[in-house]
């Protein structure tokens, strides 16, 4: 009798699996645990923002590589930032899969500008961009905290927040020093900054 009951149960499970497959009903997610739908959606939004930031920095990088700009360490710095933002987006995609979420990519809007002016103007744009990304991370952390998701909170703190605070401070310091040296009116200021400050960063 016990064997018959097992066979019947197995047959019912097999039928249920076939029914789910044929009707398009998704199978149960075996990974997902304590991962709220709002957290999943917030991660997808932030992935889009990181990809947008990567797009902006890529535009900046190749702008300063032009023959009429020729600030090659500015160009390298912004291209490196673009690569870093892409890595940030991919890290969140990996997290989404690890937690049983689903990656929903969205259209990436183009940068607001194609011409970035002087080096100091571009750094000021980068500073505002970093603040926007940081605010999105803080919002993401709050969603995770509101839904009592310690793993997601720790992930954001470990891989993102501290790094962004440092980036914001560094960019602000650079803008202050360039303004002090007379940029953008004093073109020599940006040339020296490109050669000595950003040159050291890239070496």
UniProtKB/TrEMBL annotation:
Keywords: Iron, Iron storage, Metal-binding, Oxidoreductase, Signal
Residue ranges occupied by any Ferritin-like diiron domain in the UniProt entry: 33-182
Coiled coil: none
An annotated Gene Ontology molecular function: ferric iron binding
Matching InterPro entries: Ferritin, Ferritin-like, Ferritin-like_diiron, Ferritin-like_SF, Ferritin_CS, Ferritin_DPS_dom
GO-annotated biological processes: intracellular iron ion homeostasis; iron ion transport
Pfam families reported in the protein's UniProt record: Ferritin
Family label: Belongs to the ferritin family.
Protein function: Stores iron in a soluble, non-toxic, readily available form. Important for iron homeostasis. Iron is taken up in the ferrous form and deposited as ferric hydroxides after oxidation.
Full protein name: Ferritin
Source organism: Clupea harengus
The gene coding this protein: LOC105910049
